[in-house]
Amino acid sequence: DPFPPRPRSIDIQSADPCAGLTGGQRDKLGVDAGTRRDHAPDVPGCYFTTPTQTSFTIQFLRVTGARALLPGYPDQQATDILADPVQEEIDGFGAVRAQLRRGTPSSCSYTVDTGDDSSVQFVYSPLDSSGSPAALAAGCDKAREFASMSLSTLSAG
Predict the structure, then answer these.
(1) How far apart are CA 106 and CA 89, in angstroms?
(2) Distance between CA 155 and CA 39 in Å, rounded?
(3) Is-above-0.90 flag for pTM?
């Protein structure tokens, strides 16, 4: 396994992705209470938006482990959706950072390893952006902050 041991357990099989942020965390990010929007039966999601239509999305990938997004993985997943996946760590969890192929140029995602065959994806997507390397780095910083906040909330169960 390319990732470190998970520092704690996060159960995404029965959890509600819209419960992934507390009221205080939503206030800090400047987002609404969240709208449930499932991508598929095994990919429940929640979209949190700011008044300027920047979105923060949580998706529970109940049947896809984060390692499946890395180059070199047999039958690498999501190559049509994610560009330039890179292995990282967030708060002790293994994660894969990637740019989104669709959306604005500074949209950034972190897919965090929560189980052998499950992960949580956090996406930051501003309404518009320049697409400069600095804008992408800022987008990924926002996605990382969002993931870190939500991981602490989801861990608390």
Answers:
(1) 20
(2) 23
(3) yes
